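Lab notebook page, bench 4
Experiment: in silico fold of construct C2
Operator: M.H.
Input chain length: 153 residues
Purpose: comparison with the prior construct
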Amino acid sequence: MNSTDALYAELKPDIASVANQLFDLSEALLRDQGNFLPHAAVLTDDGDIRLVGAVGESDLTTSVEILPILHDGVRQQARELPLQAIGVAENVTVTFEGQRPTKAIKVLFEHKRGLTVALYLPFEKKLLRGYIMGSTISKPAAPEVNAWSHDAV
């Protein structure tokens, strides 16, 4: 087992806490509205999960506009609050090796100890049955928010 695998195993409860909160909210927004803008969650040192959103400059905003605002807000919280981890949820289209493109809820999880993973929950919209969710897929990822310096412990 390499050090990334060991860190992933150790931090799995934190990953689950943040990701499950974001997957649940994203699924609810999909079912109610058919889409969602990026949103985030932070895990405090006390173990509390706090949801984070961002607002654009107009009523007709897009994910492209909201994502950098959300990232800035989460970075600001990491400077001001004792946080263990952050997660950012997006509605994406992803293509896994050897498969066709699929819609998915992506949760990018970044921990202050240096672990970053992207979790994907594929979904399909069925005409009469609503949304059908697949199984979660976890992949190593590069940090996008960079809430902590690389030498954080």
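Observations: The radius of gyration is 16 Å. Residues 3-140 form one domain.
Next step: discuss at group meeting.
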